[in-house]
Amino acid sequence: MLEIRDLSVAVGDKPILSSINLTLPEGQLHVLLGPNGSGKSSLLATIMGLPPFEVVGGDILFDGQPIQDLALDERARLGIGLGYQRPPRLGGVSVRSFAEALGAGERLEREAAALDLGEFLHRDMNVGFSGGESKRWEVLKLVLQDPRLLLFDEPESGVDLEHVSAVGDAIARVVRAPDKQGRICSGLVITHTGMILKYVKADCAHIMRDGRILYSGDAEEAFEHIQTAGYTAPAA
């Protein structure tokens, strides 16, 4: 579904990502591991088409189609969705009105209850939400948007232990499931703590450092290696 070939990205004159290669097949969930400042969020923002990230080399293919020159809204219409690490506040836009604008009003109460957000439906999006509540809302937002490719930027960060399992369950429920058109969904999850791996089964892990991917392979092995040896490439 997603293929990144020799991708290099800059912000102005500053290189951010260098020679990134990553393949995410349909129906798989991959995790992206790395220290702060390694380029993980920059990669997701580049896939989504967010400024100020500029592709200076390589290709991003979605279903075989190059998308690096498409606008953000065009990528969203193709079926790409992003759950932000620091989601914006939207005063005057309630959770319920947002869901209705997406055509997902009939699913809202059921999906909100699964993430313990049933009492938030009348509130403005992210206004007065705690950090953990905002993260749960970002997961709910993606569920309601029904994208084929779900990009999650540290969905468990700031979420209390009681609700990490609900976040993991929601991700596991939508990734590998069919969208409205019956196409199987895939997911790419940035995790800093690795806690989400207790609740979702990842098909592959990618270790990133200094704007490069050092390793792609088994998720559990990669996380165990990081815990003992830091963000380095496991020995072959």
Outline of the structure:
By secondary structure, the protein is of the alpha/beta class. It is 31% helix and 30% strand. Helix 3 crosses helix 4.
Structural features:
alpha/beta; 12 strands; 4-stranded antiparallel β-sheet; 6-stranded mixed β-sheet
List the helices and strands and how they pair.
Elements: E1 2-11, E2 14-24, E3 29-33, H1 40-48, E4 54-62, E5 65-66, H2 72-78, E6 80-83, E7 90-94, H3 95-101, H4 105-114, E8 124-125, H5 131-145, E9 149-153, H6 161-174, E10 186-190, E11 204-209, E12 212-217, H7 219-229
Parallel strand pairs: 3-10, 3-11, 6-9, 9-10
Antiparallel strand pairs: 1-2, 1-4, 4-5, 7-8, 11-12
Number of helices: 7
**Biggest sheet features:** 6 strands, mixed
Oligomeric description of these chains: single chain
Question: What structural class results from the helix and strand content?
Answer: alpha/beta
Structure in words:
The chain is of the alpha/beta class and 236 residues long. It has seven helices and twelve strands. The strands form three sheets. The protein has a six-stranded mixed sheet, sandwiched between helices. It has a four-stranded antiparallel sheet with strand order 2-1-4-5, covered by helices on one side. Strands 7-8 form a two-stranded antiparallel ribbon. The longest helix has 15 residues.
